[in-house]
Write a structure and sequence with these properties.
The chain has about 270 residues and is α/β, with parallel strands linked by helices. Helix content is about 25%, strand content about 20%. The protein contains 7 helices and 13 strands. It has a 6-stranded mixed beta sheet with strand order 8-9-10-5-11-12, sandwiched between helices. A 5-stranded antiparallel beta sheet has the order 7-6-1-4-13.
Length: about 270
């Protein structure tokens, strides 16, 4: 489903080809008047995630979790290395093909990014409208998505009238209304209390049990400690493997340049 092979991402002002000098200039230096950071946002990362897996992406704030998710979603292009999603090689993917690939993904954000001047129904319908789904399809899919997240009665409501947990569930319904194969969630419980966080986690586990591949970026220790699921852990843009906190259950990291091997896992199911 997802394969990274020696992938780096450097933003302007960063040095993507610093690996041989990683021990030097940790604070950054100046070259021709431009400050060059001592490390890229993502630094030679290699891993694979099988279709149907539920994987945590962990690390402290600033470790590179959001940057990695943006690379998978095609919102950023790697400075070097190879990314493959659903068998599509990003280095060979024509720009006009990228929107079709993105439609196979659902994105969930910490801040919801809901439109306050639109109803809950309209917010959830947005990916279908962009994808040029027909009116009948939209009228069928949106209520079904809201029903699955327990918000069918709030379709006509304005998102600002909902609680934080309810707004996040609207975001989940929007991410899943087009029935994507892959769900990328960037700190979806970051602004929620423990009870609401677990409700969101239960929803994600339910969708994973139905066959959706889930990559959840979080540093919520309650979620991490409460679920025995594979982890990818980032530190300073680099993949830390194995993760001492999840020994024996890390997602498969690969030596850069080696071909990926099958790592298919049965979809995770909610514990009783």
């Amino acid at each position: 489903m997802i394969e990274f092979d020696d992938v780096s991402l450097a933003y302007p002002g960063q040095d993507a080809d610093h690996g041989a000098n990683r021990g030097a200039n940790r604070g950054g230096d100046t070259r021709q008047g431009v400050r060059v950071n001592a490390r890229p946002a993502i630094d030679r990362v290699s891993f694979s995630i099988a279709s149907g897996a539920f994987t945590f992406l962990t690390g402290r704030s600033g470790a590179g979790k959001s940057s990695l998710l943006k690379l998978i979603a095609g919102l950023e292009r790697p400075s070097s290395g190879e990314i493959r999603v659903n068998g599509a090689s990003y280095s060979r993917l024509k720009p006009r093909k990228l929107p079709a690939l993105r439609r196979q993904m659902g994105l969930i954000f910490q801040d919801n990014q809901l439109l306050s001047d639109r109803s809950v129904f309209d917010n959830v319908a947005l990916p279908l409208i962009i994808g040029r789904f027909g009116h009948a399809d939209i009228q069928r899919r949106v209520p079904a998505a809201l029903e699955r997240v327990g918000l069918a009665a709030h379709a006509a409501a304005n998102p600002t009238t909902l609680s934080g947990g309810e707004q996040q569930r609207v975001g989940i319904a929007r991410a899943l209304v087009a029935r994507p194969r892959l769900l990328l969630a960037d700190e979806p419980t970051g602004n929620l209390d423990a009870g609401m966080s677990q409700e969101i986690m239960d929803l994600l586990l339910d969708f994973n049990a139905a066959g959706v591949t889930v990559l959840l970026a979080t540093h919520d220790t309650g979620l991490l400690d409460g679920h025995d699921l594979p982890r990818l852990t980032l530190a300073d843009g680099r993949l830390v493997s194995p993760d001492p906190a999840s020994a024996g259950r890390t997602a498969r990291a690969r030596t850069p340049g080696r071909p990926a091997r099958s790592t298919r896992r049965a979809p995770a199911r909610r514990k009783d």
